Amino acid sequence: MGKHSSAVTRSNNNRRSVYITAVGLLVLSLGAVFVVRSFGSEAGADGFLGGGKACADPTQIQLATTPELQSPLEAAAKSLAAKGGKDGTPCLQVTVSSAPSAQIARDVAHGSDNRPDLWVPDSSLWVAQADDGQSVPSIAVASVATSPMVIVGRRDNFADTSSWLRIMAANQPALLDPLNTTPGALTLLAVQSERQKTSASDGQVSQLIVPLAQRLGSMAKPYTDVSALFGRADQDGSKIVVPASEQSFVKYQEEHPEAQLRAIQPDTGTLYLDYPIVVTAKSDAEAANDAAQALATELLTDSAAQARDQAGFRDTTLNPLGGGRGVGDVNQLTKPTSEAIDTTLQNWTRLSLSTHSLAVIDISGSMAEKVGAKTRMQLTIEAAIGGLNLFPDSAQLGLWTFSTNIGADKADFKPLVPIAPLSQRQRGKIVEQLKIQHPIPNGGTGLYDTAIAAVRQVRQEYKATAVNTVLLFTDGKNDDPGSPTLAEAVQALKAQQDPSRPVRIIALGMGPEANADELAALAGATGGASYVARNPGDLKNVFIDALQSR
């Protein structure tokens, strides 16, 4: 920020944006275009302001905002400049640039030379992410516009609008990148926030979020273009639903009047984009704060309010848009805390990582025992086949079985399908092998030797860009007399560990004979986790929980 005059200018600069998580994890880079305009108070600035008496020494303010709000802010800056510092208004020259909110948060947090004096993100949730280690930027004006989150899709996809969870679970949600877009992040937060009203269980939420994170996280380029998603959702018979801001939907409707889309607000309520003005100046924060107040005043004039409404934005109290556009009155969900935001984004980052796993299935004699109408083996195979649907094609998975003395050189394990990407062929090979498995009469459970060998195998094929795990399914405890003791097995597993190349055991015990202590010890030695399903109906939730603990 400084004192000088310059002409009205427009320029383009290419920057490279990077995903930002709650802990500053950089995952992917995107290209972004910055469009900049300056509005000064000096005389004869290209005739753009229509001439008039100017203040002699305007304060220069660099303002960055989210692209959709650039035009309203440019209009406010132009109006403010035209007053030339009269009647107590500050003498300002404001340069307005646009970029995604996550990118500006990164610029500020990393001390970039591109750091603005003022920043108008599309949501206050990004403010904490702009902490440069010295101070978190301060919010000068809580909001200059709002836009509630809606879910957009074809009418047939909204038979049940009772909650975010139900709508998304019944359709194919196309979620904007939660780590780099506000609508994506607010969607995840809305699913969590509405639980105060729906009492949805952890398992119900996980059954939606885990496969969604796996599918979207495996994409080479996550969704960031909401208009393109609206176009896909509008195709005949499409089951795609798009969580988005009301403003983006209203603008799409104007540009595509033939579209057969509707926007709904789930009955539980919604969260909203709040567009605060944030002081990010390196120095003279007081002057930047004064400029923020002046700009906010301009944005609240009657003429500015009309332009704001035409652009699809609501006022700061979420009053409905004019002309019957949008979704009408809004029922608000509880605003998430900063801790909830951090936890949600961290969980998404973890869940969306690719998978490199070896599934190891117990085929010992006890797997022939019936639980109701089905054997433990049948229930295990059903759970494993169902679990395949949670993994995207880019995930890598292989298959072993184990009992005692069933492999080469009387090994307790038998490799069936090598670890490979889950192409249609790989899925078919795994399912085919699973369906022909039968319990071995009088076969023992060589649990310890198998666990050690499986971890060694995954380590030999370690994939640095994925979560490397052994998915160990068993119904009992180790009963191989020639195997190491539990203490020796734990020590052997610990000896294999490399903190820079972790391979974790996720142990899934089934039935009343599964030894929870043994499984916990084996998994714990690798930094993994163990779960026991005492009843067949618990298997699906146990599998979901196992994926979350990767």
From TrEMBL:
SUPFAM superfamilies referenced in this protein's UniProt entry, alphabetically: Periplasmic binding protein-like II (SSF53850), vWA-like (SSF53300)
Recorded superkingdom: Bacteria
Residue ranges of domain VWFA in the record: 356-547
Signal peptide as annotated in the record: none
Keywords assigned: Membrane, Transmembrane, Transmembrane helix
UniProt xrefs under PROSITE patterns: VWFA
Membrane-spanning segments: 18-36
One Pfam entry name: SBP_bac_11
Protein's name in the database: von Willebrand factor type A domain-containing protein
Organism: Kribbella pratensis
